[in-house]
Every structure is written in structure tokens, then in C-alpha cells.
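Form 12-C: Joint structure prediction
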Amino acid sequence: MAQALPGATHFLRRRARKMKNSVGTYLKAVLGCCCLLWSIAGHCQGKTATAQLTITMTVQSSIGLVFNNDALVGTSGFCPLTNPGTNNVGLDLGTASFTGGENTPCVLYSHLSATVYQVQSGFDVVVTKANSSSPNYRLAAEISTAPLANVIWLIAPGVGAGVALTNTGFTQLDASDTYGSSIQKNLQVQVKNTVAATTLQETITFLATAN
Amino acid sequence: MLSLNELGMRNRAKKMMIRQLALLVVLLCAPAVFAQTTAQGTINATLINKSGISLIFDTDTTGNGVSLGNNGSSNATLDFGNISAFGPLTVPNVSRPLVTAANYTVQTTFDIQVILGGITSPNYTLKANLAAAAATGLTYAVDAVTLTTAAQTIQTTGTYNQDVRHTLSLTVSTAAPGAGGPTLGAQSATLNFTATSN
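Section 2 - Result
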């Protein structure tokens, strides 16, 4: 028993030394793995590049004008526009004569006197403002070429008498119209019975100016 | 008193010494003469080849984009020129695809090229943000992403080393200045782009 005790002590010391060594090895391995992972993570981390784009612009106020079909389109006096909703539309008034009247139902035909007949069709003008504090706008119109003799091109606010247009300058139609509202206008063409058969054509430019 | 024999021996020894000295001089001088015809040196050169990516802006020529200022750099400028809801647009390749009662949008395209070096990466992620909050009444968007001051992802798998087209849209409120609309006149904004390798 006395001889066995030193042997056991020796064994235990060797065992403890061995365990100490293995713990050290384990810690080294863990530390090594950490270093490796840190290194890999560093290497794999996404590379970045930055750049700047400077945007410049000059903001301006503006107003826009479009022609729309009137709510009464299709009824007498309101023919449909071609390309409505834009600022470049067409309006076909069909074929008319002093003696035969008008062949297009949507055109309102009338005799103004014993020698003059008139055709008329209505449409809407809408003027919109952007980035502007203008309270309202004025509206004017001009025809592109001098009309034939005894032919008058007019714009009327309704069924009543219109304002004759010229090709020498804009004729004011309204002084203060409301932005965004549909302003009904009626194109009237008055033709005397002495005018020879021909096609009457004009390009009418409308000009809205912010007040 | 030296004998003739001794004198002769001395003279011979003297001559021999002189010859030996002369030979020594020649031997000593020879390397010096040769040393003037060759030279030798060493340069210890080092180069640290770092990996990275870079981002540049290019004018989108195929998509008819606006001509960029500082084209081909990472610090470019893009000018929309005069913009308005209904008036003429003054800069070529600026379009106005949308006008509503509330706002209008002007648009153009530009290219981004991300260049790869020293790393292996299949593609990149592109993010963008406004350097400062947008001015009142103005909203910026790249492709379909409305920009804020926080970085937002524009593209997740961008292709390296080629121009990638992007659309820049500026939406402008039609409200009057002081009523929610933008201030009239010159305006600017800086867009920050960040590409990160995947």
C-alpha cells in the first residue's frame, strides 16, 4: 500500500500534465480557427465604390392649353374634335350651302340674313397652370390666313354673336378665365351667298396668357 | 668599403625592387581603370496590388441620354436644363413623359459602369441616396426607386465592366411656389451611388 501510493501520485501528475497540454492545444486550435475565419471574412467582405452625380435644372412656371370635346358633343352644335385633349386638334364642319343647308348633323346651321348663312360647332378650352401663382388668364385667337372675301371666321362664347378673327393679330376673347375650367367656345363661319363653291380652311391659334 | 661584387649585388637588388614596385603600381591601378567601364546597382521594388471596384458615370449614347459633365468620372453632372409642365424642354434627350394636374415628370437616362480589379466577384449591388433632403416639390427617382437620404437598392446583380443604363426621373409638383411647389429658378441635388461587390 505504501509502495502503491507514490506510483498513483506519479500517474496522476502525468495525467494532469497531459490534460494541461491537451487544453493548451485545444485553445490554440480555437484561436487559429478564429484567426482563419476573421481573415476569410475580411477577404470576402464586399468591396465598395462610391460616386456622385450632381443634378441641375431650372424650374420654370408654365401654363398649358388643350382643346376638349364639350359635354354636349354629338348633339347639334357640338361636333367631335379629332385628337381631343391636346393642343392641336381638328374640327370638320362638313359640307354646307346657302340653299341646301348642312349635311353634318352635329353642325348647327342657320341663316343670319337673306344673303348669309352660318355654321357653328362648340368645343372646350382648358388652360392649366403649373408652378405659378397667377390668378387667372386671358384668352385670344388668330386665324392663319386672310379669309376669302365675304367669309368671316368668329369665336363665340355661346350661341350668340362671336368675335371676328383676323390674321393680323390676336383678338382677345376673354379677359380673365379660370384655370382648370372648361371654357366653352364656338367656332362660327359666316358665308355670303356670293361666295363660290370652295373648301374653306383656317388654322386658328388660341393664345392663353397668365394674368 | 664595399667591394665591386657587393656593389653589383646591391645594384641588382635595387633594380629588382624598382621592377617589383612598378609591377605593384600596375596591379593596383588596373582594377581602378576597369572599374570605370562597368557599374552595378539594385532596386528593391515593391508593389502592393490592392483589390477593389470603382464606379463611373457614362453618357448613355445608345439610349439617347443627356450628355454628362465630367463624363467617364465618378463625379459627374447631369443638367436637365429648363423644365416646366408645359413649356419647351431645352436640353436634348430630356423627355416629359407625364403631366398631371398635380405634377409632371422629366426624365433622361445615364449609364453606370462598375469596374472590377483584384477580386473575384460575380456581380455587384448598386445603392443610391440623396446627399441632402430634396427641395420642396421635387422628387428624384432612379429606375423605379424614389430616392431619399437613406441608401436604397437600385440593382442587386449589376454586371461589371459594362455600361448599365439607368433612368433618372424628376417629378415636379405643379403647385405654386410657397404652396407646396418648388422654388422657381436654378435647383440642384447630389445623388450618391454605392456599388458593393457580391
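Section 3 - Comments
The CA atoms of residues 139 and 174 of chain A lie 5 Å apart. The interface with chain B takes residues 46-64, 128-133, 180 of chain A (CB under 8 Å).
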